[in-house]
């Protein structure tokens, strides 16, 4: 999940070297914290949060295979 999120984010931003993903695991859930440059924040979130919602949808669909719950947080 972490690599998937990282690859998607790096493809969207202007500064791919500043993309960091922190993974926090529990028994049945995973929290992925995505951190990008301030300049790239708008590109990751998108208008009215559409890109962020699409990223969350793709990552959650990949998590269904492992029977896990994934939460994607975009932090500054």
What would you note in describing this structure?
The protein has 76 residues and is of the alpha+beta class. The chain has a single domain (1-74), classed as GMP Synthetase, Chain A, domain 3 (2-Layer Sandwich), CATH 3.30.300.20. The chain has three helices and three strands. A three-stranded mixed sheet has the order 1-2-3, covered by helices on one side. It is globular and about 35 Å long. InterPro entries: KH_dom-like_a/b (IPR015946), KH_sf_prok-type (IPR009019), KhpA (IPR020627). Belongs to the KhpA RNA-binding protein family.
Structural class, by secondary structure, is alpha+beta
> How many strands?
3
The amount of beta strand, in percent, is 25-35%
Number of domains: 1
Unreliably modeled segments: none
The span between the termini is 20 Å
CATH T-level fold name:
GMP Synthetase, Chain A, domain 3
What is the gist of this entry?
The chain has 76 residues and is of the alpha+beta class.
Descriptive keywords:
single chain, alpha+beta, 3 helices, 3 strands, KH_sf_prok-type
Itemize the secondary structure elements and their pairings.
Blueprint lengths: L1 H11 L7 E6 L3 E7 L5 H5 L4 H14 L5 E7 L1
Parallel strand pairs: 2-3
Antiparallel strand pairs: 1-2
């Amino acid at each position: 999940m972490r690599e998937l999120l990282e690859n998607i984010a790096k493809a969207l931003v202007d500064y791919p070297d500043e993309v960091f993903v922190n993974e926090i695991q529990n028994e049945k859930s995973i929290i992925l914290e995505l951190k990008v440059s301030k300049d790239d924040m708008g590109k990751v979130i998108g208008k009215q949060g559409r890109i962020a919602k699409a990223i969350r949808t793709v990552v959650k669909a990949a998590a269904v295979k492992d029977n896990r719950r994934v939460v994607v947080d975009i932090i500054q």
